[in-house]
Protein 1
Amino acid sequence: MLSALYIQNVAVIQKATIDFIDGLNVFTGETGAGKTVLINAINALLGERTPKDLIRTGQEKAIITGLFRKLSPVVIRLLAELGYTVESDEELMIQREIGTSSNTCKINGLPATVAMLKSIGGELINIHGQQDNQMLASAESHRRFIDSFSKLETELTAYAEVYHQMQKAYQELSALHMDESYKAQRIDILNYQIREIEAAALTAGEEEALTTRLTIVKNAERIIHSLSEAKVYLDGDDDREGAVGLLDGLAGQLRAAARYIDTLSGSAEKVDSMRYELEEQQRQVRELLDSMDFDAGELDQIGSRLDFLYRLKKKYGASVAEIIIFGEKAKAELDTITFSEERQKEAQKRYNHLHEKAVKLSAVLTQRRREGGKLFTERLREELSQLDMPSVRLTVAISVKELSPDGADRLEFLISTNPGEEPKPLSKIASGGEISRTMLAIKSVLADCEDIDTLIFDEVDAGVSGRAAQRIGAKLKGVAKARQVICVTHLAQVAAFADNHLLIEKLVEGDRTFTQVRTLDRDGRVKELARIMGGERLTELSLKNADEMLTLAAERY
């Protein structure tokens, strides 16, 4: 559960520390005071994508820190998989710094990534915003609700794996189906390409070696002249002593002097070492000169071969290595086409087997969804009855569709909110308030199927008033008996049920706007409920009504 939230330099919030308790935590405040900012801050803490304009104007970074306690086994196991060891009775601290140029994430003071926060956040908090009501317009969302309620993770995974294999087999089968005339034409092209590449007798590194040899042949005279001069410097001639001989003489003289000066013995050895290295160079120069034998037609031969390789590269690849690979692929494709009938039969057999298996697994999903859908709508009816919709009728329409990644079922909630009316698609007949209450009911039902300890509702009471609003407050209070609930509301009927009432206020100091969050005591709650119901001017009657509303809510729970 979320124990505390620390926010610094987030939009209009310069600095705020918010303490939460078990039960129902309610935020109220004027429009624009910063309630949405708080939800965005929590989303950022959970690894959601965060815009740079979340950072307070004039600041370089925003800091959001969340402290969690009473961690569930699922969260502890997930943390261990990510490399963080936390005991069930320990606290978990998650921190995110959002800078203008970089992001920093930490888990219990250790470095983390945004992906890690997102992975853990999904098991810590479930946030329901007004945009989630739009999910009810999508039949795909209806299927996901029932799948979650029915705990179909294992069945969905097994089906998805077979479906993926089936699609792969289908693609292979489609690739093997080809027109006979195209097949013959393709075989001719491949045979020509293979023959041309094989006739070239290519070897890896051939082009590089030819290029090097071409440079040598073109500059043969200069190379021979330079090597001959080098040989004279090394060997000497009739007019001068060579470098090898000079070093040999130098070493001899140093050894002779070393008989009288001990320190010269090391110098003689160094000169000997230099002479040995020079003798190795002498050997290499002689071998190179001996190998400088050029055929007059070699230059033309090398040029012709390089021109030939250039033409091949224009057709088959950017290098000799790529041409060789092209040839190997051409052989493989030719083999596939040549034996396509046999492979087509094998692929068809494999596809049929996987399709049959997918159909059976999808039938299991259909049956489980029918059973789960019936139980789900019964639970929804109970919840909606508590939310001042006693006459509601709910069913799940299941129709068949082509096999897809999620099965062969098209599911949609049908609802009738008034007696005597046949159930119709929820998105077409439900009002805004009815959709809000239906979504709250769905969240309440699914909450019992999940291990997430904290639920956040951002204005779940949109479009609701009067008795229905009071029912929503009571429902949130009931849900909060089993888990922590955090709610943003504009309705006094909902706020009256809070175990922890937090007021968000916007203040202006000088030319800057600030938002502060404070916990209200009983008197503060009375005044805030009166403000919500009656506006800025607080009368004795409005305060009395607010006090009575708090008393009645407390008596109910």
Protein 2
Amino acid sequence: MRCSNRFLGVALVALVMIGLWGCHADPDDPAGQAKELSDPLRRSNAIANIHRLYTSALSRAKGNRSAAEPKAIADATIQALADCYVQNRLLDVSNAGQIMNLLFEMRDARSLPALLAGLDWKAEVSEEHAVTAAKTLREVPLDEAQKGQVIEALGKALSRVTGKRGVDNRMRIEIIKTLGALRDRRATPILVEAMLKESENQHFLINRLAAEQLGLIADPASVDALIKALCFFDPNNPQMRMNDVAPQALVRIGRPALEPLLRTLEGKNEDANRIASNYIEAIRKRDPQAAAQLRPEAIVASEASYALGQLGFREAIDALIRETNQLDPGEKPDSVEEDPADEMRMISAAAALASIHRAPEDTKRIREALIQVFNRVKVPTRPQVLVIMQHLIDPELIPFFVQKAQRPGRGQEEDPFIRVHAFQAAILLANGDEAVPLKRLFEAEPQGDTRDGMLELSDLFAPIQECNADLACWIKKLSDSEPVVVRKACHMIARYGVNNEEAIKALIEKLGHPKAEVRTEVLYALDFVATKGSDEAVKRIEELKRTEEGRAIWNQVSRLALAIQARLAARRSS
């Protein structure tokens, strides 16, 4: 009897288990799996099944979330997933995290309540939920009202991040990126606060990231803050600044930045002056000798000049030419500038003038200003000015370059660096006729440092003779195996190929050249010829940034590349 009762009990348990098993939804039924999310014991398995079904369907649809199969699975599960997350995000943290990951895969606006709840993170519990929610919101289509909700939630989430753990920085990064990706001016105050925040717990790279996102939004309301950022620096590492990303953002904003920058150039921005003074004091603690050569007004003027040059408006020419004519009491227009701070101002203004998107009638004035700068700066600085003049792409400068490349007269001291840089500037710009005196000069040059410096450039005489002023020929030379020939081709395309679509396309194809010096010339040429902007170039530079950031070659060209990317984007939008 006792054995019979034991057998009966086991049989009853087995029947119950079979019955329970029979109540489970089919693993391949998304709607059935959605219903099982409400059961804590079945939730994990249900999430895994929905994830399997959806990602498999998405793969078959080649990533198209609007295709019938993945859309049907999302329709059957999204509401239950969102509800389950909202109700259980702090009670069942692990499964809630898996739901958030699945919502990232789906990228469906119907999950918005869950994504907003994910941003309301709890310390040591759900920070990773906030990270994933912010990433997902960059990919979800939102209407204007929803964007307002999201921006408010992102702002609250960011304001609560005060630590310096890895997850704190991940939250900052993803939230700030999403605020920029929304392209909504309601995010401007939040990003301005993040950009100008001074905290030991916030790495300065976060400040820089916020400046980049302000550029994406391009809100004129951020101009004053971005001008402050031109002189902003990391107190723990003063060499880390924002004088590259802030100008890029100002360029994207465009004309509203012009007048505030001109006032800053004139010394009428007290905030910028104060920040520059603080920067010098930070430098002084580490290198008193370097700090002694700096002045706040020179730093501010140099950064404002650079930004005006990148902005590119002709209206800045007069102010920049005045900057090249810095004269202290007792100085003459032809006297050499001995003050390093004033010399820095002059060179910055000269570089800006070479970047201005000028009209033909502007070229003579700019050329004369650059020649004056060359004559006034100290000898060791003159090669730098020659490089600036070279990128003006002004054939009228070739006789000047040839003169400076000549051997010095009796009693004059030779400077091989100046002569080689002048020879380089001339030969990179010269057509066939203009190269004749350069060839005579090279052939007459005796053995020595100057001839050695000219030697590699002498290889250009053959392609100059072959192509002369033929644009199509120079476009083909972009594929030459010799970097110096490609650099020459860039200059000739800039000279003869303005707004030529074939030339622009060929230059874009060379943006990824493995030599930094070639990329530099490609970028300058592209900026010169693409006067109407180029979406393709903007995308290609962004791709290079994404794939190469942190590598040596990107570090060498990044400031120029991102500045020109901003200019090309601004021209397209205007």
Protein 3
Amino acid sequence: MRNIPYSSVPDMLRKNAAKFQGKPALKYRKEGKYVSLSYEQFYEQALMTARGLQKLGVQEGDRIALLSESRAEWVIADMGILIIGAVNVPIYPTNTPEQVEHMLRHSGARIVFVSSLPQYSKLLNIRKSIPSVEVVVSFEHFPHERELPALTFQTLSAFDDPITRVERDRLEAGIDRIGHDHIMTLIYTSGTTGAPKGVMLTNRNILFDAWYGIKKVEALTGSEVVLSFLPLSHVFERTIGYYITIMNGALMAFADSVEKTAENMLEVKPTVMVSVPRLFEKIYSRIYENVGRMPTIKRKLFHWAVRVGKKYVEAKYVDSQTAPLLAFQYSLADRLVFTKLRERFGGRMKFFVSGGAPLDKNINLFFWSIGVPILEGYGLTETSPAVSLNNFRQVRFGSVGTLFDQTEIKVAHDGELLIRGPQLMAGYFKDPEATKEALKDGWFRSGDLGHVDNGFVYITGRKKEIIITAGGKNIAHRRIEYELQNGKYIAQAVVYGDRRPFLIALLVPNFEQLVVYAQARNLGRYDPDYLLRHESVRQLYSLTVDEVNSKLAPYETIKKFALLPRDFSIEGGELTLTQKLKRHIIYEKYKDMIDELYADTRR
């Protein structure tokens, strides 16, 4: 860490506020228009938030939760929390009240920042179960209840009341006491079974990953405009999209929403974005849909340009040699086709960084071909998050790049990737046994299967039974399967969605109960093939799935399902001798059915 000029994340903001002063740091929507905060203003408002938290009695090491969508107030509150040495506990705004309850109870959070009334209402629903919470701070104004006192962010921070010299000295003395090993955040991540575990990350972890992330990319400058649309509750956007941006003296702009990201690109004209594969899949599909409606000549020109582009990218970036004729063809393809495509990204996009889930190799190569490269990387919450990354000097499509400096990977006997480096977490909060299991001999057991070839890391599968959707959400699907099977009409369930945009389920009915249902409604015939096609039966299972979905976070819900006419069995090859599902066998056997469930919603 001797090369990193910051002792902590708030120290980084303090130094960059002095270094960049009037340079824009944050850009966000206010009353219909984009406005900016300079680095100096950002730091001042963070100090004011820290001052307000101290007046509420917050001490170093106290846990403060953030239950909010990504917005400028999120990062100001974050820095305010960190300035006084407290611990930020980010919570997804899409989490259910039950999930929020676990995180608040387990962390012992004293204060919760919320964005709006719907988030405050979640806390009201679980008030008796979160006794440690003393007060709520809201980014928006709304009425609150006596049993859960709330004040506005404006009231807490008193933004109209300038920081005095005495207050500044006291707060900055606190920053000076924060060291590299100080726990700065507690991030809850899903496991395969049981409750989520709280990952403890230090200033060292985050600073290392941000500093060496900048060095790994090489192409970042202080003039970047980074459009942020992913949730800051996820360590990927938080480190790569937020802390790296502030460390680099660049501008962080907030999208209005995920749905308006494409529109915001045209308005903000970003140069860099952090994303998950789902965005690229949508853009890719939309482009090809539009191409399909073009006249024949234009359609042929497009496909020729893409073929040339892929050859050019492979030759230049993988093989490091480009023939003059190919370079000329590419320049022509770029002028005739690719320049217009890049306008959809605002016209200034230098590159994307992709993580959180595997990116399709062909989609990645397509984006590089049109002049909007995607730098795909790999990491986990426990590694702050990045471990490896492709860049412009070292890229292999299908890989997740080469390792960060001072980072090591070795492959265990069963193919699991073991990781060691300064970005590795301090452990799991209040869970020494899980920490010991995950960090054997100083190596983190990733749960991912893979190999290293010529310095490039390749991910080939997952040892842990956990789904990572195309949107980067980690989902413990066995819990959802258990919920589905709790009802009397479902005997077996398999939830699928790895690398896909949403979850689907294959359901085996409890045919005894289904026949009883059919007889009560005089459906006529009771053989499985007939029943599974009957509209009344389809409606029954739709309601059953909806009931389970009501207990889940939005990203965990089952969007589509298929009913299977027979049980999974040992004889059929779908079960082991101990009655465990052979998921890969089930997937291969029902691959066409699974693909059909996704076929109508790929855009």
Protein 4
Amino acid sequence: MPNWVQRESEKKPENKISQYSPVIYQILANRGISSHKQIQSFLKPSLKNLHNPEKLPHIDKATKRMLEAINNKEKILIFGDYDADGVVSVGLIYNFLKQLGLDVDTYIPSRFDEGYDISLKFVKSLDKQKKYNLLICVDCGTNSRQVIDFVEKGSSSFDVIVCDHHEPTEESDHIQSDRYLIINPKLSPSKYPFRQLSGAGVTFKFIVNMLRRADTPVRNRFGPGYLTQLLDLVAISTVADVMPLVDENRIMVKRGLQVMEKTVNRGLAVLLNEALGKKSNLNTYDIGFVIAPRLNSAGRLETATNSLDILKNDCSGVESKVQSLEGFNRKRKKVQEEILEQILGQKDIEKKIVEQKIFVDKSSHWNEGVLGIVASSLVKQFNVPVILFKEKGDKLKGSGRSIDHFNLYEILSSLNHYFEKFGGHQLACGITMHKDKYPAFSRDLVKLASSLISEKQLQKSLKYDVEISLSQINGQLMSQLILLEPYGPGNPKPVFRSKECMIEDIRYLKQGKHVKLKVSQEGTPKEAIFFRISDRVKDTLSKKKKIDMLYCLQENEWNGNKALQLVILDIF
């Protein structure tokens, strides 16, 4: 059984504002929000509170160079990563520059043939063409050391502007160049007050700054609501890249979800209609589990060209491209399930994972495009770090996912002598290495995991915000909980605990996979549902008349009637 742990707040909530329930104040305090000003800013996020883009490093020089390119009608190439954040970033700046009448091309590398980030080989081939005056890299480029050196030495025929959010290496952190300009809030010289923007978030800030600095004829090409209309794409990138939904990310995603329902991006409108129908009140789940997987699917299996094309305002044949993404997504799910089944079918896999406290494996038969998703599934199931490699020739290309107690980037940095390429953050990484180094690498990594991860840390924990009685659950509480949305990293969906609840009725669904309950506490009845129940839960329900519950609250609407429902996470 998972540990039940109550979230703790460093400061007690200030309850002097009586318009909200004490439950709401406690939830906010659990997220570090306790002062009146913080509470009002969080519950009523405003675009006026977005940070000044001029505080981003090198944005002044980059904006000046970009406006020069606009005024001189220079030929521009936009290069971006193949994931949803990269594709959205390319789409954002492409549409902006095309609306100005510029000659712009785009390039998304192949995950399988080229890999992540811009390479010296690509830049040299581009330079030979003498076709472009400016190269814009989005969602990549911070740590492309060979490319940086090539451009800095004056060897390239074009300048480079980078809009990125990845962690800089030590040697990339203090680059001062007039020809290779990196806009990244994580650079050491940065005075930007928020480090956790997505790649498209940085790109959006660059566009904002350009419009602020541009002359009147340039600004007149855009309507008064132009920047706000871009927030639907920024919201997609932020959620897809699992950025924390705090500070200005929260502002942009909350407003972006509203913009999305009436999006002016034709391709996105078609995709939303195909994937979600006429659904209103879009949320982060719709982005993270419906829209983003479709935008990611093409790049995971082939190339991300289709995903980018549907976001371009001048794209034709959008409907067929969206259908193509649907096909890619179905195939992605199948490939992912096959790999997961193969791994789980290994002999003594659970024993091996428990003993090693980490799971590392490789295969020449796996599709590298879905390894990160498979690794995430294994982390969720076993609560250990996971790294999976695709073997191709004498190379291994891998994706890793981790748990809160094991900083994957930090640990792997100590083993980087094994790698040809490596990057990532605390919970995820990408690795390229020679296959001959795999035995020693996996041995050293297992040793580190065994010494750094305790038995207690391997046990799953479920965190809850506050204990409440069922009588406190009503429409007023639900309407105030809605103010806490959107939910995501940094602002998880509130979880409640209620004790000594009587089971009044049990109804199993889907051959016993799910269960609907009627529960009561001191005369207050509530409807509840528990998805994907375990044998332990079935046994508990069959033996006990009273239970303690952890749950979230959900408002369901059926035939015009709204009803509150408890979505149970665990019982005992």
